[in-house]
Design a protein that fits this description.
There is one protein chain. By secondary structure, this protein is mainly alpha-helical. The chain contains 14 helices and no strands. Helix 4 crosses helix 8. The radius of gyration is 23 Å and the shape is globular. The two termini are about 25 Å apart.
Length: about 290
């Protein structure tokens, strides 16, 4: 075994003690739970009743508008999570053990309750008789309730709250791997704090930022519950249309075609991101380069 380790290329890890067999159960699960349904969805999109599902999808204004709304809202949420999440992760990294513990608990709180409960909680906060409107009315800032739900604003607030951890955690994980001596070295060479941050720290943290942006955007385009409860009739996303095609209309072929469209959008986004940052670096792989 020592000979094999000595002759291995630097940075490359090999399986030991038959560890590759540990992959059997996860791979079987992924094939049965993901690959088989995915193939079934693609087949249904062209067989029930036929390929005209894609003609309907591309020629019906409702679906084209929903695609535009989905991409627009997903992009807005990604930017909101980036603006909120990067400074949050930065403070988590530099704030010491005490701040790290507090901020980690706060960012993970959304995972400790169900999505449905969290979304209903936002309706009580943002509604016309909710906490925010009552406070603004009591302070005399507004004369009548402000519409904070059943529109794009409500959807963005609710989904940003749910998806913020997916931006913070990858960014923080990347920041943890940055050599702590680089910033003092840049300052010692005469750079200002701002210049050292933008020339040294920010470029090194970009893989985590890109990973967070990708996760938030991809998860956003498939959301259903939050836009259904907090969004308005003009802000229907593709996930809502899929449910409507399946549940009351029983048009499984058209619903599958919309699902394939979401998959294509995800692959296109991944391809665009991959042109700028290697996919391996996005998921934290630091092997052969």
């Amino acid at each position: 075994m020592s000979t094999a380790v000595a002759t291995a290329k630097p940075g490359r890890r090999k399986f030991r003690f038959g560890a590759e067999w540990l992959l059997v159960v996860p791979l079987v699960f992924l094939v049965l739970a993901y690959l088989v349904p995915l193939i079934q969805m693609v087949v249904m999109s062209v067989t029930e009743p036929g390929p005209q599902n894609y003609v309907t999808l591309t020629q019906t204004p409702l679906y084209l508008r929903s695609l535009w709304v989905t991409l627009k809202i997903s992009l807005i949420i990604m930017l909101v999570c980036l603006v909120l999440g990067y400074p949050y992760a930065y403070v988590m990294h530099l704030g010491g053990r005490r701040w790290f513990g507090v901020l980690t608990v706060l960012v993970l709180l959304p995972f400790m309750s169900s999505l449905l409960v969290r979304t209903f909680a936002w309706t009580t906060i943002l509604g016309n008789e909710g906490v925010i409107n009552n406070a603004l009315l009591a302070l005399g800032i507004i004369d009548s309730p402000v519409q904070l739900v059943k529109n794009t604003l409500g959807t963005v607030i609710g989904m940003s709250h749910v998806l913020l951890p997916y931006m913070v955690l990858p960014a923080y994980a990347t920041m943890r791997r940055i050599d702590e001596t680089l910033m003092p070295a840049a300052l010692g060479l005469g750079a200002s704090r701002l210049k050292a941050f933008f020339r040294v720290y920010l470029p090194l943290s970009l893989p985590g930022v890109v990973a967070g942006c990708f996760l938030v955007f991809v998860l956003s385009i498939g959301f259903y519950i939050t836009p259904e409860l907090l969004g308005g009739p003009k802000d229907q996303m593709l996930g809502q249309l899929i449910v409507r095609q399946v549940s009351p209309l029983l048009q499984f072929g058209l619903a599958s075609a919309i699902g394939v469209l979401l998959l294509v959008v995800t692959l296109v986004v991944l391809g665009i991101i991959g042109r700028f940052v290697p996919v391996g670096r996005i998921v934290g792989y630091e092997g052969d380069r």
